[in-house]
Write a structure and sequence with these properties.
The structure holds two protein chains of two kinds. Chain A is mostly helical. Chain A has helices spanning 2-23, 25-44, 52-77, 85-101, 107-132, 136-154, 166-173, 190-216, 224-246, 253-271, 273-283, 285-290, 295-321, 332-342, 354-374, 378-401; strands at residues 161-162, 323-324. Chain A is globular and about 70 Å long. Classes of the chains: A mainly alpha, B alpha/beta. The structure holds adenosine-5'-triphosphate and magnesium ion.
């Protein structure tokens, strides 16, 4: 009796594991594709691609698109689109530059102020969508035109505004400080390694804890071998990335921001009622409304979050260039949307993960970086990136339909 | 013996974690009406999807023979060519298009490049005559009642040479009149030589029109019965379907004294901007603790609109009148407010606005009451699994796991998930809109039993139902609606089918 219960339990666990694997197959596939792309460029560039310096650069270049991709994921999950984020980022970048350079605002006031502005702008753009059902396509396109105009307006007298504030400029160019431990690993960034180690320990602890909790509920857990293999894989991954980064300047502030954004949004989407509500609205707005979820409230929240992330993106970009330019933000929305789709979101709504979109952003950015290193002409680069985007989406469609 | 028109031999079809069909044999004689019955999730729809090429050749094992010839359908078009037409459990018409456009959708009649509307319309008229439907072929689908829409579906199927017509629960959403019409039509088509396969949970109608009945259980053929020679009766069918006999379809509940008034509507009216007219007129009703109030009426009499208008008004009607919950007037801004006042509404249209089909069973069950399983704003997924498994067991939801996408469940099991979701809200007042639509006899009995135990604990249930036996069997008190008005109220002791029907058709 006990035994047979055990086996049905195991069988059930296996089928549910299978279901989970199947649903995530495109996510795993994209991850594998990312590794293949990275190995490919590493080989074709004689290892330059995977060098500490290049990876560090790649991450800093990716930062301002990746934060947008995080927000765009949620926008697309709730069946909308946001075309104004590039211009909003550009405008808010210029706004920060003006506030610091001409108005003399301290940097620590500028950043939160700009983030609040971003939230307000996002919510304003969302108002016709949430209140009247105006298609987001139209509302955000209009908002994009307005922000673009605003950017040109504020930079009209000055043209490019050079930013001199070193704290602000560190966001896109600086790295976390190192620990002064003389003699120990002089070639390496020690704090980065320590943080990497801490991350590994933390991830192992949390994995063990969640396994223990499941067991305390008498739920079946994956067998021990599988569990260990999983932890080893994660540890090796974190270890390898931090090792590479430690060979240059260590963890950059851009990466810190990106990790915080990803952690916060990953937490919200997977662990909180708000996250569930967002996916429910995307999956079936009418059912969500009847379940007591206010669809318009969720719309405001998601567009507000997107606005906040646009402001971060604008700050990161202006900081990276150490200046606000009239063309800042041009085309960011396309890159963010592409990253989200490569990462597996579905325009039909309700499907798409934060981690998926980050992998999508990494794929797109690796392509750019790798092809640049190989000296491939920009014309071909566009074609390749377009092809990868459409192939990824086609693959996603096919694997989803099979289920 | 003559060759059967259809023979399905040793059909086995597996989905991840489920053997939906296990060595099923199914044989249909030419010209007969063959009914397919069985519990929710028994595999009826799947068997028909195998037959119609939705699940293509190669995705199942076994043979399909039509008039003795082996068939290998790669898709629906292949099966259509072989003379098979299928009408699915859910209607598949385009509401914004006209009747004739829907009939010829995908097979438009053209002269060269452009659609020949005149020819289409005149052909549509002919086909509509065949199904006995008297509507303007240029009328938009959305302006027809469900019964007429169902007939348009059949007309659409009949435009080609049909040998075998498959109907998957065609009467589930129809009222008695429309159902009778449809059954008549099937008998009429039989005279014209069309063989029909009908899936239904309404055993009475099955016995009325079937020549032969095949019973499926857990993906296996239990038996095939000849209605006449085997002297099939409802109890025999039930026994074959669920494996035990159910003596009383409506379980008795302890008569408890009705408690305080929990819900009262005063002069409740609603104007729908979408329809451009008033859809509810001066509705006055009362509901007490511990009673089941039935709301009877025809399709389109305003019952669902009434429920939604009270339940936070998600369709944004312009309302007038008052709602009192436990004596206190309430002005709900949205369904969330209604839920906070301990109301629940199980929708009639589970796919449209009841469930998140792309999400799994456990997330659907917890959706309306996440705060119950969240601590400090974080969802405890382990608690969620416990809750979902609890309702899965209580309601006997057939699914390989609670991680299964709701889309992949059978119709009746989806309904149970929907019910579980609202039970988890632990409401005081529960509105059930067609709670047993598409549900098998065994599960109906279970749901009725649950309803009884809930009201015995003091909950109030408002049950909207088009099934008169159900209304009469379960309610303590009955309101009858017609054209947006309450036409009458009667305690169960004074209610009868005739009385209800008389009020329901009184416009
Ligand atoms: N696409 C699918 N993927 C996975 N499982 C499926 C799929 N379609 C059906 N099933 C499973 O196959 C079994 C049979 O389902 P089917 O829809 O044939 O039942 P049914 O007899 O028509 O039930 P009902 O009376 O509720 O409509 C069920 O357990 C169901 O969950
Ligand atoms: Mg079915």
């Amino acid at each position: 009796m006990e035994e047979s219960k055990q086996t049905t339990n195991e069988k059930e666990h296996l089928t549910s594991l299978l279901t989970v694997l199947k649903t995530n197959i495109s996510a795993y596939f994209m991850f594998i594709a990312l590794i293949v792309i990275m190995v490919f460029f590493t080989v074709t560039t004689d290892g330059v691609f995977i060098s500490s310096r290049n990876i560090s650069n790649l991450i800093n270049q990716m930062g301002y698109i990746a934060v947008l991709a995080v927000g765009m994921t949620l926008i697309i999950v709730i069946r909308h689109i946001e075309l104004s984020v590039g211009y909003l980022a550009g405008f808010l970048g210029a706004f920060s530059a003006i506030a610091m350079t001409f108005w003399g605002w301290p940097v620590y006031a500028v950043i939160p102020a700009v983030m609040i502005l971003g939230v307000l702008a996002g919510m304003l753009t969302a108002t016709p969508v949430a209140k009247l059902g105006v298609p987001a396509f139209v509302s955000t396109m209009a908002a994009g035109l307005i922000f673009r105009g605003a950017l040109l307006l504020v930079t009209m007298g000055t043209g490019t505004i050079v930013i001199k504030n070193s704290v602000f400029n560190a966001i896109g160019n600086g790295f976390i400080p190192d620990l002064p431990i003389p003699g120990l690993l002089p070639e390496r960034h020690k704090l980065t390694l320590i943080l990497g180690l801490a991350a590994i320990v933390l991830s192992i602890f949390s994995a063990i804890k969640s396994r223990k909790t499941r067991q305390s509920y008498n739920f079946s857990v994956p067998n021990f071998g599988l569990f260990v293999a999983q932890m080893v894989l994660v540890s090796v991954l974190i270890g390898y990335v931090t090792w590479i980064l430690s060979g240059y300047n260590g963890i950059s502030w851009s990466l810190v921001i990106l990790l915080v954004v990803v952690a916060v949004f990953q937490f919200i989407t997977t662990k909180t009622p708000l996250g569930r509500h967002i996916y429910a609205v995307g999956g079936n707005p009418e059912a969500a409304e009847l379940s007591g979820i206010s669809v318009s409230k969720i719309t405001y929240i998601v567009f507000g979050a997107m606005g906040m992330l646009s402001s971060l993106s604008g700050i990161m970009y202006a900081s990276r260039l150490r200046s606000a330019t009239t063309t800042a933000g041009l085309g960011f929305e396309t890159d963010a949307i592409a990253a989200a789709f490569v990462g597996g979101v579905s325009a039909a709504g309700g499907v798409g993960t934060i981690t998926g979109s980050i992998i999508g952003a990494l794929v797109m950015m690796s392509l750019t970086s790798g092809m640049n290193l190989m000296g491939i002409d920009i014309s071909i680069q566009y074609i390749v990136r377009g092809a990868v985007l459409v192939l990824a989406v086609i693959f996603d469609r096919i694997t989803r339909r099979k289920m | 013996m003559e060759t059967p028109i259809l023979e399905m031999k040793s059909i086995t079809k597996e989905f991840p974690g489920v053997k939906a069909l296990d060595d099923v044999t199914f044989s249909v004689r030419k010209g007969e009406i063959h009914c397919l019955v069985g519990e929710n999730g028994a595999g009826k729809s799947t068997l028909m999807k195998v037959l119609s090429g939705v699940h293509p050749f190669g995705s199942y094992t076994g043979d399909i023979n039509i008039e003795g010839e082996l068939q290998k359908f790669g898709n629906i078009r292949d099966s259509e060519k072989a003379g098979i037409a299928i009408i699915y459990q859910e209607l598949a018409l385009i509401p914004e298009l006209s009747v004739y456009e829907n009939i010829f959708l995908g097979n438009e009649i053209t002269n060269g490049l452009v659609i020949d509307s005149n020819e289409s319309i005149s052909q549509a008229v002919e086909i509509l005559k065949k199904v006995g439907l008297d509507v303007n072929p240029m009328a938009k689908i959305k302006n027809l009642g469900v019964g007429k829409q169902q007939l348009v579906e059949i007309a659409k199927a009949l435009k080609k040479d049909v040998k075998i017509l498959i109907l998957d629960e065609p009467t589930a959403a129809l009222n008695e009149n429309d159902s009778d019409n449809l059954l008549h039509l099937i008998l009429e088509l039989k005279k014209q030589g069309v063989t029909s396969i009908l899936i239904s949970h309404k055993l009475r109608e099955v016995l009325e029109i079937a020549d032969t009945i095949t019973v499926l259980r857990d993906g296996k053929t239990v038996t095939t019965l000849d209605v006449e020679s085997d002297k099939v009766s409802e109890p025999i069918l039930i026994k074959n379907m669920v494996g035990r006999s159910i003596d009383n379809v409506f379980p008795k509940r302890e008569k408890i004294t009705v408690g305080d008034e929990v819900l009262r509507l005063e002069d409740w009216s609603a104007f729908s901007y979408a329809h451009g007219r008033e859809i509810l007129h001066n509705v006055n009703i009362k509901v007490h603790a511990g009673e089941i109030v039935g709301i009877a009426g025809l399709m389109g009499s305003g019952r669902t609109e009434l429920a939604k208008s009270v339940f936070g008004n998600p369709d944004h009607y312009r309302l007038s009148g008052k709602v009192f919950i436990r004596g206190v007037e309430q002005k709900f801004r949205d369904p969330g407010d209604a839920i906070k006042s301990s109301m629940a509404y199980v929708t009639e249209d589970r796919k449209g606005n009841g469930l998140i089909l792309i999400d799994d069973v456990k997330h659907n069950i917890s959706l309306a009451n996440l705060k119950e399983i969240a601590k400090a704003g974080v969802i405890n997924e382990n608690e969620e699994i416990l809750v979902a498994n609890q309702y899965r067991a209580d309601l006997n939801i057939k699914t390989p796991s609670i991680q299964q996408k709701v889309r992949n469940l059978s119709g009746g099991n989806q309904q149970k998930v929907s019910l579980g979701k609202w039970l988890f809200v632990k409401p005081g007042i529960m509105i059930l809109d067609e709670p047993t639509r598409g549900i098998d006899v065994g599960a109906k009995y279970e749901i009725y039993t649950i309803m009884n135990s809930l009201v015995e604990k003091g909950m109030s249930i408002i049950m909207i139902s088009s099934e008169l036996p159900e209304v009469l069997g379960m309610s303590d008190r009955i309101y009858v609606m017609s054209a947006g008005k309450i036409k009458g109220e009667m305690p169960i002791e004074e209610a009868s089918q005739e009385e209800i029907m008389k009020l329901a058709v009184d416009y």
